[in-house]
Amino acid sequence: MAGKNINIVSKTLAESYIRKQIKALKQDPAQTIYTLTKQLLEKPDSPLEKYLLHITPEKLQDTQSGYYQLFHDILPKINTEHLVTLAMNIGYNSLFTASKNTQLHSPESIFNALWAFKLSIDGICYEKKAAQYKAQITSAKKNGTHCFILFIEKNAWKLLPFIKKEKDCAFFLFCPASCLTEKFLDAAKLTKNLFISVAYNKNNHKHPAPSTDVFKQLRIRKLPYAVHYYYSASDIENFKSREIFKELSKERPLFSFFLSKKSDSVQDTVTEEDKKAVYEIIIKERYWLTYPSIPFAI
Predict the structure, then answer these.
(1) Cα end-to-end distance, the chain, whole Å
(2) Could you tell me the pTM of the whole model?
């Protein structure tokens, strides 16, 4: 019982600290980052902390930096309770657990450790398979996973009641813009542990470039969101020129996720060599962040 009480106190303190830092970030990003960076420099315990040091106060004062725009323009406009809930579920419930059980060497290894549980949802036959999905998520939680990537093509609204119940988890919902009706977004606004990622691919019948109105509706509700892009070998030049980062950042997502494109037979269409090249470009872009959307390879 004593151990449980200590955990409750620790979690309460962590939430209080996160809430305080998010509020400070919204009011004075440069000064807050300066203070946090100074604290990390004194004792950067984990690889994640060492990695975070590259978001320097200088970058937040450089109006040409993507980090400047991200922290000065995009982050302050997101609902605070959404940010606190996601930060707790990702940072405390997942990252704290993962850092104790896994030797993490890079942001990607952290990402894979936390979000390795990916689940494709059949939105049409969801009711028939709901018990199966819930059992898989429950099993993952027992192993310490509290972050989930859910892929769904239709009827995303069916997932909201379940997501809302799993209050200690963070759900990254990857879906097409067609799922994001105003009714769905109104419900998503009340689902604080939900992070929406919108499929974004030009000239693609399955994932066409969404209309800017979808992103406008997300911003009106102060929801955090990302975009995800299925890349093929033909996109390599756009990665090299950074044009792809520029294009996706126009919609002001916090993150841009990149996944290699699969064929209709679910075979990978991108070679391991090209994946490695894309990964290295993403790493460089994330370090300098020319455009205000933090990229990740999934």
Answers:
(1) 40
(2) 0.83
